[in-house]
TrEMBL record:
UniProt keywords, alphabetically: Acyltransferase, Cytoplasm, Iron, Metal-binding, Transferase, tRNA processing
EC number annotated for this UniProt entry: 2.3.1.234
Cofactor(s) the protein needs: Fe(2+)
Transmembrane region(s): none
PANTHER family reported for this sequence: TRNA N6-ADENOSINE THREONYLCARBAMOYLTRANSFERASE, TRNA N6-ADENOSINE THREONYLCARBAMOYLTRANSFERASE, MITOCHONDRIAL
Keyword tRNA processing among UniProt keywords: yes
Entry protein name: tRNA N6-adenosine threonylcarbamoyltransferase
Protein role: Required for the formation of a threonylcarbamoyl group on adenosine at position 37 (t(6)A37) in tRNAs that read codons beginning with adenine. Is involved in the transfer of the threonylcarbamoyl moiety of threonylcarbamoyl-AMP (TC-AMP) to the N6 group of A37, together with TsaE and TsaB. TsaD likely plays a direct catalytic role in this reaction.
Residues spanning the signal sequence: none
Biological source species: Candidatus Intestinimonas pullistercoris
Binding site for Fe cation: H111, H115, D302
Binding site for substrate: C134, V135, S136, G137, G138, D167, G180, D184, N274
Pfam families xrefs: TsaD
């Protein structure tokens, strides 16, 4: 089954053709990051307009790269939430028109379920159940992936997403947008104990997370140093910051894995590219005996292939949409 999939939930327009869930025939992406860098973050209206310009060309490119024609498409899939509403609406409307025109089923895909699916593409042996740490610019969740389309949130951030914190601190440091990757590069060779940052625990909710205090602590440290004319050791600041993020994420996902007992941990989303978090998880899993599934860096960020992969499992579960499909800025992962 060939699924033509679209992703437009934030600042990347992406299209892909995925066969039978796990074989990626094509995966094309148009990033708008350069445009949003000027403003230090995503400007929603610009993002929507760029999706409008790019999406039809990407559909053609995805089919061409796959060596397929329009008649070879068996279903169309699209991210319908969560994300920026204007950006999502572009993808949803285009996918509806494509499914309508081609006379094929339309499959709605939850963005974070898509991120989890990136692991199925990277690891052909991976099957549910497993515990997944989903960390991106908009979400930080620990999820019980009971089955391909059956999921429950075990822990969630009460405020900012981890990626958002990397982005905000990078913006204050003036090292670019999105800030996670530049922060990661800056941290290499830094002393992770040089600066002391808070590790927050949520009372009575041991698997929940909170990052806003850490973000504020880092930004205050930078502003105070500026006011006093002090020079900060930036690699050590970035390394100490990454250590604090990782210290909040890794023990919680290990605790979830211990309690749920599947012996398998996956990681998903843009922040899954972070070298400190990957290293800490590798060490923790080596000690616990859990099998760790990390997506390659190319599949951590937003892409169309992950949507096409998850769409196959949604289709098999009978989850299809009518022509009245809408987009949702917020959508529970368990609802699908
Ligand atoms: O999954 P994604 O592409 O988009 C969302 O669905 O949100 O994630 C983007 C986020 C951004 O916050 C970006 O700064 C972060 O992933 N990110 C990283 C790294 N690479 C990307 N954060 C930490 N370390 C990285 N190496």
């Amino acid at each position: 089954m060939n699924i033509l999939a679209f992703e437009s939930s934030c600042d990347e327009t992406a299209a892909a053709v995925v066969r039978d869930g796990r074989t990626v025939l094509s995966d094309v992406i148009a990033s708008q990051a350069d445009m949003h860098t000027i403003y230090g973050g995503v400007v929603p209206e610009i993002a929507s307009r760029k999706h409008v310009e790019a999406i039809a060309g990407l559909a053609d490119a995805a089919l061409e790269q796959a060596g397929l024609g329009k008649g070879d498409v068996d279903a169309v899939a699209v991210t319908y939430g969560p994300g920026l509403i204007g950006a999502l609406l572009v993808g949803v409307n285009f996918a509806k028109a494509a499914a309508y025109g081609l006379g094929v089923p339309l499959i709605p895909v939850h963005h974070v379920r898509g991120h989890i699916s990136a692991n199925y593409i990277a690891h052909p042996d991976l099957e549910p159940p497993f515990v997944c740490l989903c960390v991106s610019g908009g979400t930080t969740l620990i999820v019980d992936v009971r089955d391909y389309t059956e999921m429950e949130v075990l822990g969630a951030t009460r405020d900012d997403a981890a990626g958002e914190c990397f982005d905000k601190v990078a913006r204050v440091l003036g090292i670019g947008y999105p800030g996670g990757a530049p922060m990661d590069r800056l941290a290499q060779g830094g002393d992770d104990k040089r600066y002391s940052f808070p590790r927050v625990h949520v009372h009575d909710a041991p698997l929940d997370l909170s990052f806003s205090g850490l973000k504020t602590a880092a930004i205050n440290l930078i502003h105070n140093a500026e006011q006093k004319g002090e020079t900060l050791d930036l690699p050590s600041l970035a390394a100490s910051f990454a250590a604090a993020v990782s210290d909040m994420l890794v023990p919680r996902v290990m605790e979830a894995a211990r309690r749920w007992g599947y012996g398998k941990i996956a990681v998903a989303g843009g922040v899954a590219a972070n070298s400190r978090i990957r290293g800490d998880l590798e060490r923790a899993c080596a000690a616990s005996g859990d099998r760790l599934y990390l997506p390659p860096l190319s599949l951590c960020g937003d892409n169309g292939a992950m949507i096409g992969c998850q769409a196959y499992y949604e289709y098999r579960a009978g989850h299809m949409a009518g022509m009245d499909l809408n987009a949702y800025a917020n959508r529970e992962i368990g609802v699908g």
